[in-house]
Design brief:
It is built from 14 helices and twelve strands. It is of the alpha/beta class. The radius of gyration is 22 Å and the shape is globular.
Length: 395
């Protein structure tokens, strides 16, 4: 019943956005007949970026943020993110300021709602900053609507989620390219050039960035130090996910962890938030004798990054930790639900193995799935064999 209500609510929202867009673009056509859109000026002093979704999504914008900062080295770059994503940009030298706005349409809290008074206060505060250019790196209607109320002369963003008529420079996304390249293309397509030419995902200008501080490394050393009897053969795991449709069967993870320990001598480091504790408990009996290190609910996102940096390999569902591992340069195996297109959303990097299934209902983008056929088809054996192949190659 909950799943059906979600579908109808989403369809009703899309219908409303379509109707608003129809009116908005009609009016814009008339306005543009008399007034041409403003060109992006050469002199930019204040840049505002909206990226209100989740940790992995924010991390994928870091090459574009670096490109913006390279193009305008003297400009301040302010980014607005949800409170759940703020730490991933901590100590990022390209970002001048991080502001928080918990967009209810991206909030995974079941009690989420739109606080109109707080939102309007946030808009008024941003208006005072007098930004020169606004970027919406999601293309969601509500984010663009808020951005349009900020009185910023140049507004750039994707037009595929509705509200493109509110942008001075709408961008139509390119099909079948990764989100990292999508964000870079949005900048390049509007006259903001950057110095990258290589098409491979490991070129310096296209690498995602996460800064791990000395304090976070000390946390990792102290935590791992408790398990000094273990060798240095660690494999990181994240067996949770933000969406139920992205979950591989936890018991299969348990069997995989035990097999990698018994046959190859690797110990698991389990990472994740407090919300992942219940899932980890389901495999505790299976991995009891594997000397696994359970960090779920203990480490924050940057401390988690430091723990991942210690691993020889990282295995997980499509969620923030696999993107963090890819950003650090750790080999990654992502068990990818068919709910999304892996071309655009898998971890970005050349050292990433994506295990997914080509099912008829692929790219459904469902939050929940009744039968999760695409995930059930993935076997322990194929993940184990891929892990063994990578470990032997890297060793």
């Amino acid at each position: 019943m909950k799943h059906i209500k979600y579908i109808y609510k989403k369809r009703w929202m899309l219908f409303n956005i379509f109707f608003i867009d129809l009116i908005g673009y009609s009016l814009l056509t008339i306005i543009r007949f008399f007034k041409k859109p403003q060109n992006i000026p050469e002199s930019i002093k204040k840049i505002l970026v909206f990226k209100l979704d989740h940790i992995g999504d924010v991390l994928m914008t870091t090459p574009a943020l670096n490109a913006l900062k390279s193009r305008y080295p003297d400009a301040s770059l302010t980014i607005v993110v949800g409170s759940w994503s703020k730490d991933i940009l901590k100590d990022n030298l390209d970002v001048s300021e991080i502001l928080l706005y918990d967009a209810y349409w991206f909030n995974r809290n079941i009690n989420k709602k739109l606080n109109i008074k707080k939102t309007w206060g946030f808009i008024k505060e941003l208006r005072k900053r007098r930004f020169d250019i606004f970027y919406s790196f999601r293309g969601d209607f509500m984010g663009i609507l808020i951005g349009s109320l900020l009185r910023i002369p140049v507004r750039v963003g994707f037009n595929n989620g509705g509200g493109g008529f509110l942008l001075t420079h709408p961008i139509t996304p390119i099909e079948n390219i990764h989100q990292v390249e999508q964000f870079l293309n949005a900048i390049k397509g509007n006259g903001l050039t950057h110095k990258y030419s290589a098409r491979d995902s490991d070129s310096d200008k296209k690498k995602m960035k996460i800064a791990i501080s000395e304090a976070e490394k000390r946390f990792m050393d102290a935590f791992i130090g408790k398990y000094s009897g273990k060798n240095e053969n660690f494999i990181g795991f994240h067996i949770g996910a933000g969406y139920p449709s992205k979950l591989w069967i936890p018991e299969k993870y348990g069997i995989l962890i035990k097999r990698l320990h018994d046959e190859l001598g690797f110990h698991a480091i389990l990472v994740g938030g407090k919300e992942d504790r219940a899932i980890v408990k389901r495999i505790e009996s299976v991995i009891r004798d594997t000397d696994s290190i359970d960090c779920t609910g203990i480490a924050n996102i940057k401390e988690t990054a430091a723990l991942i940096e210690k691993c020889n390999l990282f295995i997980g569902n499509d969620s923030a930790p696999v993107h963090i591992a890819a950003a650090i340069g750790i080999p990654v195996i992502v068990i990818f639900s068919a709910a999304n297109n892996p071309v655009g959303w898998k971890p970005f990097g050349s050292n990433v193995a994506c295990i997914t299934k080509d099912v008829q209902c692929k790219y459904c983008e469902k939050y929940e799935c009744i039968d999760t056929k695409c995930m059930q088809m993935i076997t322990v054996g194929e993940v184990y064999n891929k892990a063994k192949e990578i470990l032997l190659k890297t060793k």
